[in-house]
Amino acid sequence: MTALPADERPFDDTPIHTADLPATPTRDRNISAKAWVEAPASVRGAGDDIGGVRVAYKRRLGPWLLWRAGPARRADARYVAVQHDDLATHHEFRLFADGTGTGVGPSGAHHTRFRAWKQDLLGRAATDG
């Protein structure tokens, strides 16, 4: 299996259930939000306001399922983390083409750095400084 750059991976629309989403990133394809049988609206519509971009599954982060709408680098994108056992609970981080970002993590803290937002998802102390 050859690893492809994130934005070159084809989308796989084969139906998949929450329990079957892999813990680690897939390197040969993008699992489409359209394929996720239990996908909540927060994931299905994550790209609607940024050009109707496709939404791809990225990985599990602790209790969270991480999805991205849009390209991986220097472009408008949105990450949505959905709690695996409560699909109504989610948090978003919005990345902008100029490299800035904004999002609120489960701690209630506002983040301007994606890394700090991900650390918040994992329950780790996160600072944006």
Task: Report on this structure.
29% of the residues are buried. Helices cover 9% and strands 31% of the residues. It has one domain (6-121). The longest helix is centred in the last third of the chain and has 8 residues, at 114-121. With 129 residues, it is mainly beta. The strands form two sheets. A six-stranded antiparallel β-sheet has the order 3-4-5-6-7-8. Strands 1-2 form a two-stranded parallel sheet. The chain contains two helices and eight strands. The chain has helices spanning 41-44, 114-121; strands at 11-12, 30-31, 55-61, 64-69, 77-83, 86-95, 101-104, 110-111.
Task: Present the secondary structure layout.
Blueprint: E1 11-12, E2 30-31, H1 41-44, E3 55-61, E4 64-69, E5 77-83, E6 86-95, E7 101-104, E8 110-111, H2 114-121
Parallel strand pairs: 1-2
Antiparallel strand pairs: 3-4, 4-5, 5-6, 6-7, 7-8
Key terms:
129 residues; 8 strands; two-stranded parallel ribbon; mainly beta
Report strand order across the widest sheet: 3-4-5-6-7-8
- Put simply, the count of helices is 2
- The class by helix and strand makeup works out as mainly beta
| Envelope shape | globular
Radius of gyration: 14 Å
Helix content: under 10%
Stretches with pLDDT under 50, minimum 5 residues: none
| Terminal-residue CA separation | 39 Å
Report the sheet with the most strands, covering strand number, pairing sense and barrel closure. 6 strands, antiparallel
